[in-house]
């Protein structure tokens, strides 16, 4: 009896883990990925702008 219950639980776990994502889940994943990319690129741009500003300030102080 225990083996049968364990088998049913195992089949249920396999079914749930192997199911294909719905369109809604795929869209949510894509939106999240785009948001992460935007955040990473924004951070990169901010860092580069800060570097340019620092360099300009150093050049201004030298003159």
The 3D shape can be described as rod-shaped
Q: How many distinct beta strands?
A: 0
The helix/strand class is mainly alpha
Give the amount of beta strand, in percent. under 5%
Uncertain segments of ≥5 residues (pLDDT<50)? none
Largest sheet: none
> Helix proportion of residues, in percent?
over 70%
H-E string: HH
End-to-end separation in angstroms reads 87 Å
Number of helices: 2
What's the layout of helices and strands?
Layout: H1 2-18, H2 23-62
Structural account:
This protein has 63 residues and is mainly α. Helix content is 90%, strand content 0%. It contains 2 helices and no strands. The longest helix is centred in the C-terminal third of the chain and has 40 residues, at 23-62. The chain is rod-shaped, with a radius of gyration of 26 Å. The mean pLDDT is 86.
Keywords:
63 residues; mainly alpha; 90% helix
Briefly say what this structure is.
The protein has helices spanning 2-18, 23-62.
